[in-house]
Task: inverse folding
């Protein structure tokens, strides 16, 4: 039932948050699980059930798939229901902390199949490489193999080979697996693009990486961001600051909080120095300050401070 519980809260966030809001992401799922726990513990399970009915009541095509899942979960006792919420809440948190290689997983959800896939991936990401490999072997031994399950398991196994612990790292196996499922999962193509870009497990080919990002940018917000960034720096493609500016501007109001900080940083620099747009130091400063005040900390943090100091004429 844990997978179903995960699907329920993914649907809940997708139904209660609008595109571009701060909780339209896995963080929203963590918040939603806490809200459910508060309602159930302070009132009862039936109160939470009624709340869900109201949330899913306006589904345009009839019964919301989230409500169908909730009807299944209502077979659990209140104690069992709470235990399953706490389990999926822990998985949501761990998945986010370990890095999803994904700015905002819910932006990749466009269908019921995607919801199911994401929920299963969250469970698998918290398992060891050995456990995932065993599950994959079990699936391969079945007479009627589920191709979707095989693809998800392969993707998560590759993720462990690429980003796992030191003893798990095996770039060759990661590349082999992602190539097998590249035409089935956009995420696999995204990861392959990064392998080409960094030369991990395969000969470095930044142009090929850029082309793959372009191929999937309409389906994957992360790839769209990379297309803009690579155009800005002319990395893997000819420098095109105007194209980078247009893509970043288009994305700015429709992205989750974490990516918004990055976009503000890049747009801020572009306005400040007149890259791909008429120079506007005031607007550039505003965007850089927004990135800075959002707690933006990475290897480019000094760049933001430098730009702000230059604008204010601070020499120390």
Result:
């Amino acid at each position: 039932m844990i997978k179903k519980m995960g699907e329920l809260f993914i649907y809940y966030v997708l139904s209660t948050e609008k595109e571009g809001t701060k909780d339209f992401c896995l963080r929203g799922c963590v918040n939603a699980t806490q809200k459910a726990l508060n309602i159930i513990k302070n009132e009862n399970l039936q109160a939470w059930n009624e709340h869900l009915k109201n949330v899913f009541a306006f589904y345009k095509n009839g019964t919301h798939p989230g409500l169908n899942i909730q009807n299944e979960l209502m077979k659990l006792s209140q104690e069992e229901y709470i235990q399953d919420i706490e389990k999926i809440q822990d998985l949501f948190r761990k998945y986010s902390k370990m890095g999803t290689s994904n700015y905002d997983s819910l932006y990749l959800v466009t269908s019921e199949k995607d919801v199911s896939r994401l929920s299963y991936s969250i469970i698998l990401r918290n398992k060891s490489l050995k456990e995932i490999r065993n599950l994959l072997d079990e699936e391969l031994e079945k007479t009627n193999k589920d191709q979707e399950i095989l693809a998800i398991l392969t993707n998560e196994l590759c993720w462990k080979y690429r980003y796992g612990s030191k003893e798990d790292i095996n770039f060759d196996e990661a590349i082999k697996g992602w190539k097998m499922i590249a035409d089935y999962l956009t995420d696999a193509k995204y990861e392959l693009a990064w392998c080409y870009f960094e030369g991990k497990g395969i000969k470095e080919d930044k142009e090929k990486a850029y082309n793959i990002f372009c191929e999937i940018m309409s389906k994957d917000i992360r790839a769209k961001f990379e297309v803009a960034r690579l155009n800005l720096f002319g990395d893997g493609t000819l420098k095109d600051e105007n194209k980078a500016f247009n893509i970043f501007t288009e994305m700015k109001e429709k992205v989750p909080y974490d990516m918004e900080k990055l976009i503000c940083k890049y747009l801020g620099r572009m306005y400040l120095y007149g890259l791909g747009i008429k120079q506007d130091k005031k607007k550039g400063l505003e965007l850089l300050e927004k990135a800075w005040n959002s707690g933006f900390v990475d290897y480019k943090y000094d760049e933001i401070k430098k730009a702000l100091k230059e604008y204010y004429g601070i020499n120390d």
In short: The two ends are 58 Å apart (CA to CA). Residues 170 and 303 are 34 Å apart (CA to CA). The mean pLDDT is 88. DSSP finds 16 helices and no strands in the chain.
